């Protein structure tokens, strides 16, 4: 009980965390979260305080998963990085507790967990909601999340074409040079999106970067950025015309500018689709608005720690 916490640095965390392990665990916990009769999973909406002097925010993300007795807290700082590209836009630390005593047992770098669990949840949305015949993947934004999304989407699905766009052309070109497969770089978001079957938005923009009139009917959008009530990645037309899925209705109602400011109705949580209580309307244009959840970090951190322990 009085032992010092173990510290796991990002390279130690990154090694054992595979998408094959992560996806079924995430599907299970998202399903449990969305069952109204389940008290197995406890996760409040993240509490966020502004870091006024630095255009940033600090989010606290506690979660408890009773059946496996995992008590976890992620602390994540995120910033608007319009000018200074040398500073990170997201920094995360994950704590695992001994649930019986309440002491911290593990402190881990949350970088890889945040990249991979977010991409894995977007991939789950795509599995459920993208058109049955999906040939063209388009990624808007070319930072860390773009890399993890590229990695899992190209692992899980077969696309004929992968396209990218970012605010700065050189960022998109660097991305294309840094991934193992062929990628088409576009200097215009509108052209990149034209005809795409699945579009991933992973920018730090606070204004729309994706407009409904560009989106092919029936396409699926995984919208990962814009996690403040006054930030947008998607315009009102897209939010009005698409069927909207979220990770958490409560989180979306408080944090998602795309939902709050457009007044769009949420059709379902991803967990409800996984549970079969709401349908996956694959034939319609769909948006999965991702905000990130503490339970996602909890299952990822538990996986990492269990694997690390068994390797000692
Ligand atoms: N939903 C979740 O669970 C979750 C988890 C982690 C991060 N995020 C969010 O995902 C987004 C991307 O995170 P990241 O770690 O890849 O960030 P990053 O800083 O590594 O990359 C951001 C990318 O957005 C581009 N960009 C910035 N401003 C832009 C603008 N105005 N228009 C178009 N492109 C612009 C940058 O050029 C860069 O390519 C952030 O908004 C972050 O908060 C969401
Ligand atoms: O759930 C998360 O980890 C992210 C961090 C950055 C802001 C949005 N949500």
From TrEMBL:
Cellular component aspect of the GO annotation: cytoplasm
Pfam families per the UniProt record, alphabetical: OCD_Mu_crystall
EC numbers: 1.5.1.1, 1.5.1.25
An example Gene Ontology biological process: thyroid hormone metabolic process
Gene3D superfamilies the record matches: NAD(P)-binding Rossmann-like Domain, ornithine cyclodeaminase, domain 1
Reaction equation(s) it catalyzes: L-pipecolate + NADP(+) = Delta(1)-piperideine-2-carboxylate + NADPH + H(+); (3R)-1,4-thiomorpholine-3-carboxylate + NAD(+) = 3,4-dehydrothiomorpholine-3-carboxylate + NADH + 2 H(+); (S)-cystathionine ketimine + NADPH + 2 H(+) = (3R,5S)-2,3,5,6,7-pentahydro-1,4-thiazepine-3,5-dicarboxylate + NADP(+); (S)-cystathionine ketimine + NADH + 2 H(+) = (3R,5S)-2,3,5,6,7-pentahydro-1,4-thiazepine-3,5-dicarboxylate + NAD(+)
Alphabetical keyword list: Lyase
SUPFAM superfamilies hit by this protein: NAD(P)-binding Rossmann-fold domains
Keyword Lyase applies: yes
InterPro entries for the chain: NAD(P)-bd_dom_sf, ODC_Mu_crystall, ODC_N
Domain of life: Eukaryota
Top EC group: oxidoreductase
Subunit structure: Homodimer. Binds the thyroid hormone triiodothyronine (T3); T3 binding inhibits enzymatic activity.
Family designation: Belongs to the ornithine cyclodeaminase/mu-crystallin family.
PANTHER family assigned to the protein according to its UniProt record, in alphabetical order: KETIMINE REDUCTASE MU-CRYSTALLIN
Name listed for the protein in its UniProt record: Ketimine reductase mu-crystallin
Species this chain originates from: Ictalurus punctatus
Lineage of the species this protein comes from: Eukaryota, Metazoa, Chordata, Craniata, Vertebrata
């Amino acid at each position: 009980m009085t032992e010092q916490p173990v510290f796991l640095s990002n390279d130690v965390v990154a090694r054992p965390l595979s998408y094959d392990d992560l996806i079924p665990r995430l599907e299970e916990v998202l399903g449990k979260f969305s069952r109204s009769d389940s008290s197995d999973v406890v996760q409040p909406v993240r509490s966020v305080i502004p870091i006024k002097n630095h255009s940033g925010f600090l989010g606290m993300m506690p979660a408890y998963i009773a059946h496996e007795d995992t008590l976890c807290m992620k602390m994540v700082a995120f910033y608007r990085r319009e000018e200074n590209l040398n500073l990170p836009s997201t920094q995360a630390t994950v704590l695992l507790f001994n649930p019986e005593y309440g002491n911290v047992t593990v402190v881990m770098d949350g970088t890889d967990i945040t990249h991979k669990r977010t991409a894995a949840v977007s991939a789950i949305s795509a599995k459920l909601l993208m058109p049955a015949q999906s040939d063209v993947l388009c990624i808007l934004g070319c930072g860390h999340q773009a890399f993890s999304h590229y990695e899992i989407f190209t692992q899980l699905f077969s696309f004929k074409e992968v396209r990218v766009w970012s605010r700065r052309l050189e960022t998109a070109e660097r991305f294309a040079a840094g991934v193992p497969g062929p990628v088409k770089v576009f200097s215009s978001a509108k052209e990149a999106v034209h005809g795409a079957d699945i579009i991933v938005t992973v920018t730090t923009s606070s204004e729309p970067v994706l407009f409904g009139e560009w989106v092919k009917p029936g396409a699926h959008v995984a919208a990962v950025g814009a996690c403040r009530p006054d930030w947008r990645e998607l315009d009102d037309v897209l939010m009005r015309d698409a069927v909207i899925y979220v990770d958490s209705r409560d989180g979306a109602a408080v944090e998602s500018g795309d939902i709050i400011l457009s007044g769009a109705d949420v059709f379902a949580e991803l967990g409800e689709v996984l549970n079969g209580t709401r349908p996956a309307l694959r034939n319609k244009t769909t948006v999965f608005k991702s905000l990130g959840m503490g339970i996602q970090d909890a299952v990822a951190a538990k996986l990492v720690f269990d694997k690390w322990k068994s390797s000692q």
